[in-house]
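@channel sequence for tomorrow's demo:
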Amino acid sequence: MTTAGPERTAVDTLISGTVIIERSENSVRTFPESDDSNSVVIERIGPRTHKCPLGTRDAAAVSARVNGRELTLTIGSGRLFKRNYRIVAEFDGRFVSLRPKDIEATTYLNGKPHEIEKEFGEFTLRAGGTVEVFWALPRKVLHKTVEPPVPTVEELLVGYALAAAFGTGALSLTTIVMGGRGLDDALMSRDRR
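structure tokens (generated this afternoon):
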């Protein structure tokens, strides 16, 4: 039996050059194109139990590292409610998180999921492993312009790795209850990722 090597996708981050996303059946690795020693690795160390790209949403069955340092993940179960798709990552005393926005996109935050004023931007995982990003823009809040945070290279790599490993987006409860138009198509699209 021949095992294929990892799939590689190059993504232009628009703010920090090109990031390479390397995916295999049980791991995701992200690194800048210019420096593959600076990387984030997320590996499944247990059995495949979920349809997400990595194959599990069980934190006990996942090992994650940022440049060799521990990356602690709190992973939602990925069931029914959008909040169950949230992921919080902690490294070096910092938190970053993914919070589903809609059926395709996930908001990437500098902090925990409730810290919406610290939005880096939105990730969308596409077929073939590409991760699209829309970086947050400055916005006016109570007559004051709020500048979004700019991720460090490590935060950038963590965000891309989380999106590639666990997927993006989630169905809202309203869509599920109402049996929204295109629900079957949306579910089939998510399962193909």
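heads up for whoever presents: Residues 53 and 110 are 23 Å apart (CA to CA).
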